[in-house]
Structure formats: structure tokens, C-alpha cells
Amino acid sequence: MIHMRIHLCYTFAVSLAQAVTIAIRYSAVRFQGQSPNGSEIQILNYLLQQDKLVPCLSTVYAFLIAFMKLDTYFNKLKTNDTVFLDQLPELHALSSGLKAYTSSVGERFAQ
Predict the structure, then answer these.
(1) pLDDT on residue 39
(2) pLDDT at residue 85 tops 80
């Protein structure tokens, strides 16, 4: 069950990464508005668009790093049964909290 929770965090991170990638690519291709020299401006150059996309992108990296650390921790503990049983409550709390956080933040950013 813990291993499933850990991999759900990865799934949420990958889904958010796909949404952010689509948004950034669209913002890089789309032009809108007028610059002083008369040409159109890339949407990605607007600060408001950057304020929306950069936190999402950094959150994806944070989620992926958290998943890798938690997965490594789980795999280390899995090899030693006595240590695994001692660390099980901590691992359970970390995986439960991370699953709830990644799903709620991922949903909010994907909107």
C-alpha cells in the first residue's frame, strides 16, 4: 500500500508535467498584442503568464525530486526487515502526506 501511494505521487507529478508542458509550448508559439515597433508579442513574454507557469514548472520538479527521495528511502528500508518495521510509521506518514499534497496541488495547477 505504501509503495502504491509513493507511485501515485509520481503519476500526479507526470500528469502535471504534461499539462505544464502543453501550456508552456502554447505560450511560446502564440503571439498576441502589439509591441512598440508594431510586431506581435509572444504570450510567454508577458509577466502575468510567467507568474502562472514558472511556479507550476518548479512544483513539477519538486514533486519529482520528492518522489525519487521517497522511493529510494522505501527501497533501502525494504531490504532490511527489522529496520523497515521500525521506520514504517514514518514512511506511512510521508507517503500519505505527499499523496494528498501532490493530488490537491496538481489539480489546482492543472486548472
Answers:
(1) 85
(2) no
